Amino acid sequence: MYIFSDLALNLRQTLGDWFRVIQILKNGVTAPDYLLKTAYNSTADYFAHFNNWWSAIEYYEMGKNTTKMIECYYHLEDWKNLEALIDSLPEGDPLLEKIDGTFAIDLAKKYNISKISDLLMKYTNHLVEQGQIMTAIQMNVQAKNFLHAAEHAYRLENLKQRSQTEIW
């Protein structure tokens, strides 16, 4: 009997039928912990793909995927739960920095803070001077300044090409 359930588990995994994988695992089949976590996160991704944010949150919570839970709460504009989730994060967590940047850009655009693009340009230029070109690109993409993001990406590619030609 064990062999058949193990084969069924492998089949469902291969097919990407994560709902069934969860069901099989809950029926007592032994498997590594990461498999259940992967099944929960993949099921949540399915729900998120169809904008069923509440169901996605439920499965992300079971899969302990805080990053995706924050994204779901953001899409739902459920600020109370988002705040509670942020408060539960340890101090210095990299997620806090990511959230901070996202909210700063969105709030500035929503409330039409003047000269936000000038401030963003100064900051991204500062990042480029510090050698953090990828961060500058990501900031511009988040702010939907795709032209500036492309310019920085072009600059990054030129730097990579120069470093490769120096090696040869």
UniProtKB/TrEMBL annotation:
<dbReference type="GO" id="GO:0030991">
    <property type="term" value="C:intraciliary transport particle A"/>
</dbReference>
<dbReference type="GO" id="GO:1905515">
    <property type="term" value="P:non-motile cilium assembly"/>
</dbReference>
<dbReference type="InterPro" id="IPR039857">
    <property type="entry name" value="Ift122/121"/>
</dbReference>
<dbReference type="GO" id="GO:0097730">
    <property type="term" value="C:non-motile cilium"/>
</dbReference>
<dbReference type="InterPro" id="IPR057361">
    <property type="entry name" value="TPR_WDR35"/>
</dbReference>
<dbReference type="Pfam" id="PF25170">
    <property type="entry name" value="TPR_WDR35"/>
</dbReference>
<dbReference type="GO" id="GO:0061512">
    <property type="term" value="P:protein localization to cilium"/>
</dbReference>
<keyword id="KW-0853">WD repeat</keyword>
<protein>
    <submittedName>
        <fullName>Uncharacterized protein</fullName>
    </submittedName>
</protein>
<dbReference type="GO" id="GO:0035721">
    <property type="term" value="P:intraciliary retrograde transport"/>
</dbReference>
<keyword id="KW-0677">Repeat</keyword>
